[in-house]
Structure formats: C-alpha cells, structure tokens
Amino acid sequence: MTVTIYDVAREANVSMATVSRVVNGNQNVKPATRKKVLEVIERLEYRPNAVARGLASKKTTTVGVIIPDISNNIYAEAARGIEDIATMYRYNIILANSDQNEEKELTLLDTMLGKQVDGIVMMSDAVTPKLHQSMEHSPVPIVLAGSVDESNQFASVNIDYFQASYEAVQMLIENGHKRIAFVSGPLQYTINSKFKLEAYKKAIIDANLELDENLIVSDDDTYDSGIEAWETLSALDNPPTAFFAGSDELAIGLIHGAQDSGRKVPDEIEVISFENSKLARMVRPQLTSVVFPLYDIGAVAMRLLTKIMNKETIDNQSVIIPHRIEKRKSVK
C-alpha cells in the first residue's frame, strides 16, 4: 500500500502540518522533531504526492515540454537543455512528441493542462491558427523554443534565422558562385518560408545575380530528399555550383548525390547546411553549417519560463541568441 502523510504523522506522533513543513523545508520546526520525522520518512519510504501538494499550493513544480520528435538528435539536444535548467530550478518535466502534427499538438496541449503543469515549453515548426488559438486560452504561461509566433504574443527564444541564412548564402556568393540553389524542407514551416527562403532571395538579388525559381527545391527534411534534389538540379541546362540546404540530412543527400555523379566537394560543388547536428561532422567532407543551437535555445526557454511562472521582471519576452556559421570542408 502507498505510504501517506497520515502514516508518517501517526508514526512520528506529530501533526500532518508538521510533516508537511518538514517535507517542504520550512525552518519553523524544532530540530529534534525534524530529525524524528525525517527518520520515519526514510523508514517508511514515504514519497510526497506531487499532485496533492500541487492542489494545496496551486503549484505542481512540473513543466510540460512538447517537441516534434525526441528521436531526432537536434530535438534531443533541445530537450536536454530544457531538462538541465528545469532540474537546476527544481522543476520536473513531462515530455511528449508531437510528430509535427497539428491535431496531436492540440491534444498534447490539453493533456498537459489536464496534468496541472505550471507552464509549457513548446517547439513547433508551424504555429498554426488553431494552435495559436489553443495557446491563447492556456491558463499557464507558454514559451516557444526554436519556434516563431508571428504575432509576437508568446514568449519565445530563437536565433536570427534571416540574418544567419543571408550570411550563409553570402559566403557562397563571395566564393564566386553565380548559380546557387536553395534546398529546403516543407515551406509551410514558418522558419523555412519566411526566413531561410526570403534571406536566400535577398542575398541573390543584393548580389545582382539572377533569381531563378528553378533553383528553389522544397521537399521533406530527409537524406533521400537531398539526393532527389541533386538529381533534379543537376539535370538543369545550367545547373547550380553551390547549395544552401535547410538541414544537415538534405545537405548530406546533396553531397552524396554529387559524389555519386563523379563531382568533387568542395572543388566543384560547395554546400552549406543549416543545423549543425552531429551528422555535420560525420560526413566527408565535413559540413559547413549554420549553427542552430537548440541546447542553448531549450535552456534559455526554460529559464525564461521559470521567470514568468515566478513573476520575475522580464526585459524582453522575445529572446534572440547569437548565431554563427561553423566553417568546415564542404566549402573552400
């Protein structure tokens, strides 16, 4: 049977209020009484009921975390950043995978709220109108991590996706390329369409190069899509000599497609990716990549959430952390 606070109080011959004060670290308990209660707690292996404590204090010290896919290394980094800071501030987390599915996101949001979480960290490639509306009605604060809310209504932590992407394309332009392709994941995702693609177009136009729509390819963020993109783009009458890829898997597919066709990277073809996951260092040549620091984004998002939950002063609820491009061997 589960040991309750009643059992501890009876065994220690104290009131339940005294046990509660000991469990919660209240110093207004005599040392001898505290020692006796702690000995009983250890002997009975009593574990405080977080739900019951939450009902009494209106806090459960639990945070919901909704991410697209924990099996994806890049999202796993974000989850680790969130969990590390949550532990530091003595919060537990409930982690759930949304599979980047709107209906599942909505269901998980309701589920988290039903578990009486104190706050939520949400990662979503597309904050859809339905999701936005559901978040608006949340009774607890929500912080977006690596996700863009165009209304700026919710607290968020990101990098400057536009500037980072612009710098990546500019690097290829400075290396002398005039035919640069943009290979992306789904364009219904805000970061892909509103930032990466728009930055690519602006960099091309600013350099007085031809903006050729045939050099823009969008598909899934997968290795196979990268290979297919290579096959499509290399078959053009005037094929590209450089590629800005929206993810590491896409970039590796492009590199392997080029190598299978007898092209040398970076001597003949240059590739820059956006992500900088562990895969970027595993492929040969190693990938030059825009760093998407999801560990840092997750950690900062969790810290921002703790501030909001504890009603601390916040200077800016839309946090932009620094970005950089990690230069390796896929460009000269």
From TrEMBL:
Superkingdom to which the source organism belongs: Bacteria
UniProt KW keywords: Activator, DNA-binding, Repressor, Transcription, Transcription regulation
Record PROSITE patterns: HTH_LACI_1 (PS00356), HTH_LACI_2 (PS50932)
Domain HTH lacI-type: 3-57
PANTHER family: ARABINOSE METABOLISM TRANSCRIPTIONAL REPRESSOR (PTHR30146:SF150), LACI-RELATED TRANSCRIPTIONAL REPRESSOR (PTHR30146)
Pfam families to which the protein is assigned, alphabetical: LacI, Peripla_BP_3
Protein name (Swiss-Prot/TrEMBL): Catabolite control protein A
Function statement: Global transcriptional regulator of carbon catabolite repression (CCR) and carbon catabolite activation (CCA), which ensures optimal energy usage under diverse conditions.
Listed CDD domains: HTH_LacI, PBP1_CcpA
Alphabetized GO MF terms: DNA-binding transcription factor activity; transcription cis-regulatory region binding
Keyword DNA-binding recorded: yes
